[in-house]
Each structure stands twice: as C-alpha cells, then as structure tokens.
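User: I'm writing a short methods note and want a consistent example. For Shikimate dehydrogenase (NADP(+)), I'll paste the sequence; you return only the structure tokens, no commentary, since I'll be parsing the reply automatically.
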Amino acid sequence: MSKQFALFGHPVTHTLSPRIHRAFARDLGIDMEYRAVDTAPDDFKAALDRFAEAGGVGGNVTLPLKEAAFGLCADLSPAARRAQSVNTLIRTDHGWHGENTDGAGLVRDLTDRHRLDLRGRRTLLLGAGGAARGVAPALLEAGIDKMVVVNRSAERADRLVDLLDAPGRVASRYWEDLEALGDFELVINATSATRHGGALKLPFGLASPRFVVVDLNYGEAAAPFLSWGRAAKAEAAIDGLGMLVEQAAEAFQRWHGRRPDTDDLYASLRAEHARLQTAD
Ligand code: ATR
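Assistant:
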C-alpha cells in the first residue's frame, strides 16, 4: 500500500496542498497518497487517531487547527515550540512529532525566489495570531534588524513579543500609533483582516526608500494590502503563494528525506493565479 499522508483543516475545499504534494511525489518518483480531510475542531483528535490507525504516517495542518495540533503532539521541533503551532506531522512510535515549516518556507521564498536580502531590514509585522507566530522566529533568525509587532489587540502583540524573547530586537506598539512609528524596509501582513473582504487602513509614512511588502495570504485576500504597498512605491509586493509552495517542500523533505524542486510548480500556480485575477 502507498504511504498515507493527509491535510487536516476546516474547510479544505479550496486547498492547493494535495495538488502540490502529489506533484512533488510524481517528480521524485515517490509512491504516496495525499488527501484533504475536512475536520471540525471538536473532531480533530479523533480524526488524527483514526488516520494513524489506518496507517497514516504524515500530515499537514491548516486553519483553524494549527494550535490544536501543537497541543496534540507527543514532541515538537524547536520551530513548532517557538511558534506554538504545528503545520507538519510525522508519525513516530510514541505518537505525532510536530513541526512548523511556515517560517522556513517564507524565508526560502523571499531569499531564494525573490532574491531579497533580509539582513538588517527594519521590519513591521502586522498581526500576532498563529500566522505571525509561525513566521516571526524565522525572520529574526534570517537576520532582519529590529521587528515591531502591531496587532489590533495589544495584549496579543505583547504575548508574541514575550514569546520571541529577543529583548532589544522586538517590540510591540499600538495600532493607533502606526502614523508615528517611522518607516520600515519590510512590512508583513500576517493578519486575517482581508480574508473575509475587510480592509487594512495603513499610512504611507511606513514606506522607506527600500521598502518591500509581503502578504502571507494569496489570491483575493492578498490584493488590498499589496495594492497599498504598490501605491506606497514598494520595490516588491509579494503574496503568500511562494511561501505556500516552499512550506510544503519543507514538509515533504522532512517526510521523505528529499527536497523537491519547486520552480516549475510555482510557475504554473502563479500563471493560474494571474489568469484568475484578470478574469475577475
Ligand atoms: P491566523 O492563524 O491566520 O494568524 P488568528 O490566529 O485568528 O489567525 O489571527 C488573526 C490575526 O489577524 C490576529 O492578529 C488578528 O488580530 P486580533 O489578535 O486583534 O484578533 C488579526 N485581525 C483579524 N481581523 C482583523 C482586522 N479587521 N483588523 C486588524 N487585524 C485583524
């Protein structure tokens, strides 16, 4: 029987993950099955147990289950522990081992694909939820300069700053103070504000001359923030499609010991997204 892998999330109707992993497996000649399992949060633990009993050896976890997965793992990688969320599962003799490949995926996309030098960049991170926690440690490790975390609810921003435990490099500020924060060289939208048609009101004063904007969302959800970045004359406006492909490649490597080449797949997904956006 082929090795069994699955994505757990709720909903999973529009996910690209099965397509991405099947393409990697095909390219590398690896025999595996990968399916999407729509899992209500209340049923997640039972669903994982059923999957393991049926021979499941690895999984991915997406919204809204990443934090629950963190709580269900028998052990955790350092990145998962720092993020307090898990997007990749590996079955071991004593239960699930949890990893978080989002941060590594983002850094890989920005540095390798977009040729961005992250070192020394003054960074503004908008949001302090699961997505922000997933990427913040990897950005610090990649050598960004100071990071300011701004979140709608200030307590959550403070919690993320405490968790990152990098005194002098990371600070939280209030959303109302955005006008007074000065300018940044990297601004990352890790909020879910635009996922349901909402907007983010941001001042142009955040833009420095070598200013880059990154939205962890892709498709329609990334459009409002990236449009703001372009209007503010960003050198580059990057959505989360490349991060999605790269975090998948990182997970794939942990399962199979081989990292797939991502360029062709990224190019075809990018072409489809461009077509979809012009067709709207
Ligand atoms: P995810 O796993 O996608 O990060 P999450 O943990 O629910 O999801 O976090 C959502 C993030 O988007 C949070 O930072 C949230 O701010 P709060 O902590 O104040 O809730 C942010 N967010 C959601 N809607 C927003 C809005 N309309 N304006 C600004 N921030 C918003």
